[in-house]
Amino acid sequence: MPLPDIFSLKKQLVVYGAHHNNKVNVAIHMVFVPVIFWTALVFGAKSGPLISGGPQWLKAFGPNLSFFTIVGYHLYYSILDPVASTLAAPILYGMCYTATKFEKSNPNAISIALAGHIASWIFQFIGHGVHEKRSPKLMDNLVQALVSAPYFVFFEVLFKLGYRPQLRKEVETEVEKDVAEFRAKRANKNK
Q: Domain map of the chain by residue range?
């Protein structure tokens, strides 16, 4: 029995890739998805510790809303691709740790994070409207856009480094089909 689409790495990569096919838009996402993600972790760090006690390493993370969010993301990413998730783990937990430290040590952390967050979203919409000419995925599926986007940006890097070339080829083939169908529908609609 096949996995539901939400747990299919290939299907998720195709959905994301079909809305992120333009090189300029992809470059914008490579920069600003991590900024959006990190600034959101700064906001989550504001929650302060949600549990008390525990080992010293856990206390270094808060353990705040951001930490538990990262744990959830990591678990979901592990279902999609355990190897890539393991490679992403130091980045995920590092972002959580630095966001927590930033929130604790900077009295203007939330204001700074908010400015970066808003600016990053503006760039994302410019990337989609001007370069991709296709709506952001968050218009169709907010969870897929917010949860999957950081992992798929990471996959852009992994694919460039030669990770799972067969999967990359299959995804690119499906993305090309989706983009061609989208363009054909748009052309017919404009007639």
A: 5-189
d(CA 105, CA 103): 6
The encoded tokens of residue 96 equal 């959580």
- The arithmetic mean of pLDDT across residues 55-70, rounded, is 91
**Residue whose structure tokens are 């900024």:** 35
Give which of 91, 106, 81 is closest to 159, Cα–Cα: 81
Specify whether the backbone of 133 is left (phi greater than 0), alpha (psi in -120 to 50) or beta: left
Number of residues in the chain = 191
For residues 64-77, give the mean pLDDT.
96
pLDDT of residue 53: 83
From CA 161, how far away is CA 138, in angstroms rounded? 27
Cβ-contact 110, 103 below 8 angstroms? yes
Q: Name the 3-class secondary structure at 71.
A: helix
What burial class does residue 76 get, using C-beta atoms within 10 Å of its C-beta: 0-12 exposed, 13-18 middle, 19+ buried?
middle
* Predicted model pTM: 0.92
pLDDT of 46 reads: 96
> Which pLDDT belongs to residue 139?
67
Report the range of poorest mean pLDDT among 5-9, 99-103, 133-137.
133-137
State how far the Cα of 153 lies from the Cα of 31, in Å rounded to an integer.
9
- Lookup: tokens for 46: 């504001």
